[in-house]
Amino acid sequence: MNIGIDARPLSLQEEGIPRVVKSLVSELVRIDQENSYYLYSQRDFDLPLDNPRWHKRIGSRCSFLPGSIWFQTEARRAILEDNLDIFWGTQHTLPLSLPSKVAKVLTIHDLVWRLYPRTMTLKNYCNYRLFAERSIQQANRVISDSESTARDLQRILNVPESKIEVIHLGVGPAYKPHDPRAAAEYLASKYGVSKDYVLTVGKMTPRKNLSVLVEAMKILRDRGEHSLQLLVAGAKGWKTAKVFKSVERFGLTESDIRFLGFVPEEDLPVLYSGACIFLFPSLYEGFGLPLVEAMACGVPIVASNTSSIPEVVQDAALLVLPNRPQDFAEAILRVRGDMDVRRTMIGRGLRRAGCFRWDKAASRVLECMERVVTKRQRGMAAEPRADERWRRYASLLACPDCHSRLAVSADLFRCEECGISWPIVGGIPTFLSQSSAQTSFYDQTYWGRRGSRRLSSDDRFYLKVVNCWLDRLQVGSSSVYLDVSCGEGHALYAATERGARSIGIDISIVAMRAGQEKFGLTGAILKDASSLPFPDSTFDRVSCLGSLEHFPDPRRALDEMRRVAQPSALFLFLVPNARHIFRSIVSVADPQTIVTALDERGWIEFFHQLGFAVIGQWIDNHTYHRPVRPFKLRRVVRRAMAPLCELAGRKYAWQLCFLLRKAG
Question: pLDDT at residue 660 above 50?
Answer without folding.
Answer: no
